[in-house]
Amino acid sequence: MILARLIGLSALVLGSVTAQEWPIYGGSPASTDTLPGAHFRFERMLNTFSWNGGMVVEAAEGPWRFRADQRLSARLIRAGRSLRQEEYRGRVVVDHSFGQDWGAIAQQRSSSVTGPAGIDLGDVSQHLVLGGVRVGSAFGPRLTGLLGWEWNRQLGRDDAGLSGSVTGEVPGVTWEQLQMQGRGAWSASELGDRRPSDAAVEVSLRRPFEEGSAYALTASYEAQRRDLPAVGSGLSGGGAVDAGALLRRQEEQASVRQSLTWFIDPTLRGAIDAGWTSRQIERRYSVVGGPLPAGIRRSELAAGARLMWSPSAKWWNDLSMGFTRGEEQHEVLEADGSDPTAIDEQWRQARRRNHQSQRIVLAVRGGSAISDATDLTVSASSNILRYDTPDTLNTDDRDELLLTASAELMHRVGPRLVLQLVVDGAVDHLVFLSRFQSSNNVTIRTLRLAPAVIWGMRGGFLNVLRAEVAASYSAFDFEDRVGGVQSYSYRQAMWSDSLLVPLGRSVQLEFTGSLRLFERGLFRWRDFRERPERMFVELALWPRMRVVRWSYGSLAVGFRSFRQERSVIRDGVRAFDGAIGSSGPTVEFEFAWPSARLALTGWRETQRTEGRTVASISNVTLQVRTPF
To answer: Which residues pair with 466 in a beta bridge?
Structure first.
């Protein structure tokens, strides 16, 4: 049924608005596939089936312009009882130009989400039919106004009413070397006692200077209102909510950001930026005696700087730093007929959620060509977070310090052999300021060493060998004083090989394999002593044979295998504690015409535990794409 509906949608006239409409209440199709064409994807992974597809159609004839865009996705989960959810978004726009600077627009938009009650979004749909006029050219200021009707369904409630929108844009105006541009949008619907709306305005100024330097200032404001059906009872704040109640959610956000980029000479560049953002959220119920209205106010101040210096072609440096300070306050708003006891209780809960945070980041990265065959890249960073909660009942006050460092050395031994070595480490120190959580103070130290050899030969032979040794030690500050607080360690060794061997003009052997050993154990940092508790060994193998006998296609057949063995270590003696594994054949087929592409990937997975077969599952992925 889902596949039939997807194919049937290809005949519908559904699509996307023009770039003039930014943004519009109801949203736009959630996809990056905006070029004309059709695509379809089916995937089965274990007990989950997924479908998604879409189509974009464009046409132009004289003064007429047409664009249709549709998206459909579906998901089916078979676990005990089958759960299915479908989501559809589509839009169509018809534009007729009456002259160079004005025309008429008609559009239809639809979106829906259907699924089992109480899971995800349940049953939600929105359908709009709009028409109006646009004034202005594609390269200058333009204004678009639309008016129409909306049908809306949420949680079993159906509403309909008048809907309209106004959008405008000034793509670019230059006055006295000052470049200015702006855009804005407003949309609203009258759905009885529900009145959803959106508004957004953004203005940008830019002043270029000589040699690539420039100053930029951007200010924006956004407002959103949603009236949502409120069902259920027992919500915080006291009181039950009847089926006819509405939850009104209003949000406003204002921001200002400025930046200065400067260019002294080809070896030295820099940038400085700063910004401020304020956000307010308010929630109110339409019934008296229900949950109390609440609000959230958040403000953030951010600043940063970056310096890039390249004194020569063989040496470069990049230094950046940033500062962010944020504050969030929760409050209880006034409401008639509220119980004073409920007000006091909600105020106590709101105050516990108030917090302030401050973050400072410093990072440096540099590189040097030591010789014509050797390159060295190093980097380091420092991240400091301070999180404060004014309420004494909130014990989340904490300070956190994260230090990282990395070095990568690459050496080319001739044209076909490359040696690589990566060394990196990190220290993460978390300190809770409250004595009630001080036992969670911990320092995590991580070190990793990863060499690699990349070897290639004429004719397409390629071999990539990688290895890795890593260790992580988590040491709690009060492991000697607080019972039950124990530090622990994690160590790992891994080897992997990726091989490509041509066996002729149209046949090649591909192999991927890895071996990983890791163990976990108790640890004492002061004595640097470890007591291993568990050990794991993982082996993965995947050989494939690929045949390329057609101009546009290939076929690969292989066998993938995975096995993990677990062991328990007691008193230094390792004892086998079970094994799990999976294996099965794999196939990959790809065919590309000049106007289409088809890819099919499948594998059969037989899962085993303790030598017994517990499940055999077929997985498949199908992708089809056809540009118009």
So the answer is: 452, 496
- H, E, C per residue of 512-540: EEEEEEEEEEEEECCCCEEEEEEEEEEEE
CA 386 centroid distance within chain: 25
Q: What is the mean pLDDT of the chain?
A: 86
Beta bridge mates, 588:
556, 601
> Using CA atoms, how far apart are residues 91 and 108, in angstroms rounded to an integer?
6
**Tokens read off for 249:** 């959610």
> Could you say which DSSP state residue 211 is in?
G
Structure-token pair, residue 275: 């910004």
Buried/exposed code over 90-128 (b: 16+ C-beta within 10 A; e: otherwise): bbbbbbeeeeeeebebebbbbbbbbbeeeeeeeebebbb
C-alpha distance from residue 433 to each of 326, 438, 439 (Å): 19, 7, 10
Three-state SS string across 446-468, please? EEEEEEEEEEECCCCCEEEEEEE
Q: CA Rg, the chain, in Å?
A: 31
What are 447's two structure tokens?
């070190």
Amino acid at 549: R
Q: Give the residue carrying structure tokens 């010789």.
A: 371
Is pLDDT at 172 greater than 90 in this prediction? no
- Stretch (H or E) spanning 343: helix 340-353
Mention every residue, 6+ apart, whose C-beta is less than 8 A from residue 270: 261, 262, 264, 305, 306, 307, 308
* Integer Cα distance of 488 and 533 in angstroms: 10
* Residues 226/246, Cβ–Cβ less than 8 Å: no
Helix (H, G, I), strand (E, B) or coil at 610: coil
Listed in sequence order, the residues at least 6 apart from 178 whose beta carbon sits closer than 8 Å to its beta carbon are 205, 206, 207
In what helix (H) or strand (E) does residue 2 lie, and over which residues does it extend? helix 2-9
Q: Which residues are bridge partners to 175 per DSSP?
A: 178
Give the integer Cα–Cα distance in Å for 618 and 613. Answer: 15
Name the strand (E) or helix (H) holding 570.
strand 553-570
Structural contact between residues 283 and 293, judged by C-beta atoms closer than 8 angstroms: yes
Strand duo 214-229 + 197-208: pairing: antiparallel
Note whether 454 and 418 are within 8 A (CB): yes
Q: Which of 276, 263, 328 is nearest to 303 (CA)?
A: 276
Q: Is the model's pLDDT at 132 over the cut of 90?
A: yes
* C-alpha to C-alpha distance for 477 and 444, rounded to whole angstroms: 11
Q: Can you tell me the distance from the alpha carbon of 118 to that of 116, in angstroms, rounded to the nearest whole number?
A: 6
What residue has token string 């991927």?
512
Contacting residues for 33 by C-beta, under 8 A, at least 6 apart: 39, 54, 56
**Residue 421: which residues within 8 A CB-CB, separation 6 or more?**
408, 409, 410, 449, 450, 451, 452
Max avg pLDDT among 156-165, 272-281, 390-399: 272-281
Residue 242 confidence (pLDDT): 57
Q: Are 383 and 402 in contact (CB under 8 A)?
A: yes
- Find where tokens 């005949």 sit: 11
The tens digit of pLDDT for each residue in 283-312 reads 988 876 667 889 999 999 999 999 999 988
| Of 20, 93, 106, the residue nearest 60 (C-alpha) | 93
CA separation (Å) from 5 to 10, 51, 124, 153? 9, 11, 18, 21
CA 508 to CA 549: how far, in whole Å?
11
CA 72 – CA 9 distance, rounded (Å): 9
